[in-house]
Amino acid sequence: MAGSKAKSENGIVETIKTVLWALVIAGVFRTLFFQPFWIPSGSMKDTLLIGDFLFVNKMAYGYSRYSCPFSACPFPGRILASEPERGDVVVFRHPVNGTDFIKRLIGLPGDTVQMREGRLYLNGEAVPVEPAGVFEEIYEKQGPMGNLPRCENGPVGEGGICQKSRSRETLPGGRSHDVLNIDDNGFADNTDVFTVPAGHYFFMGDNRDNSQDSRFGQAVGGVGFVPAENLIGRADRIIFSSAGRSMLFFWTWRADRFFKAVE
């Protein structure tokens, strides 16, 4: 009887050890290599859709205190730092509210950035764009938050086709990506000239009229200029994508987005 009790206690101890080691290994993996990220909003359509699940490459830019869960890493500034490239899709920590955002890197330190009539200007030069058709999606609640998409052809009834004009934008250096347009009347289409300070970056969403980004100051819900230490990692590839309210609803997974590269 005593032997059975001892075996039972040993089994419990071994189980606890296994769980603890699994947590340690998972924590190290998440801190040093890849962090899972679930796309909650439509600010990066059509590059990223609500329900896309991806791993963020945390080795891309080195490590800061934001590389650890709860910002617990005791790193001063960044270690093993590498400079991000214009056009990277980056996950970063919001400078004020502490949430993780994902946007495209548009402005590097020293750049000037401006929007004029919906056109992006970098260092005083218009960035080349060309028409790329129309992005279409069903007007319905999307993701766990039940967000309804904004439509250029609105108002659209539930179940209807929601459309946005799509263009192909080519940044200095030759990297290209799609951007969407919803309207031409918002503040985000006509801005002041922003000069990116040293040690900071300027980010924008690809869904240009539906993104709170560096065009908006932190006082009004935007992100402003993002310090280099707030960069967490680069989004390289979508693992899978769920069109339903949960990533566990495998029957709602989008078949065309498995292991899709993030451009």
From TrEMBL:
<dbReference type="GO" id="GO:0004252">
    <property type="term" value="F:serine-type endopeptidase activity"/>
</dbReference>
<keyword id="KW-0812">Transmembrane</keyword>
<dbReference type="InterPro" id="IPR019533">
    <property type="entry name" value="Peptidase_S26"/>
</dbReference>
<comment type="similarity">
    <text>Belongs to the peptidase S26 family.</text>
</comment>
<keyword id="KW-0472">Membrane</keyword>
<keyword id="KW-0645">Protease</keyword>
<dbReference type="GO" id="GO:0006465">
    <property type="term" value="P:signal peptide processing"/>
</dbReference>
<dbReference type="GO" id="GO:0016020">
    <property type="term" value="C:membrane"/>
</dbReference>
<dbReference type="Pfam" id="PF10502">
    <property type="entry name" value="Peptidase_S26"/>
</dbReference>
<feature type="active site">
    <location>
        <position position="43"/>
    </location>
</feature>
<protein>
    <recommendedName>
        <fullName>Signal peptidase I</fullName>
        <ecNumber>3.4.21.89</ecNumber>
    </recommendedName>
</protein>
<feature type="active site">
    <location>
        <position position="103"/>
    </location>
</feature>
<dbReference type="InterPro" id="IPR019757">
    <property type="entry name" value="Pept_S26A_signal_pept_1_Lys-AS"/>
</dbReference>
<keyword id="KW-0378">Hydrolase</keyword>
<dbReference type="InterPro" id="IPR000223">
    <property type="entry name" value="Pept_S26A_signal_pept_1"/>
</dbReference>
<dbReference type="InterPro" id="IPR036286">
    <property type="entry name" value="LexA/Signal_pep-like_sf"/>
</dbReference>
<feature type="domain" description="Peptidase S26">
    <location>
        <begin position="13"/>
        <end position="238"/>
    </location>
</feature>
<dbReference type="GO" id="GO:0009003">
    <property type="term" value="F:signal peptidase activity"/>
</dbReference>
<keyword id="KW-1133">Transmembrane helix</keyword>
<dbReference type="InterPro" id="IPR019758">
    <property type="entry name" value="Pept_S26A_signal_pept_1_CS"/>
</dbReference>
<feature type="transmembrane region" description="Helical">
    <location>
        <begin position="20"/>
        <end position="39"/>
    </location>
</feature>
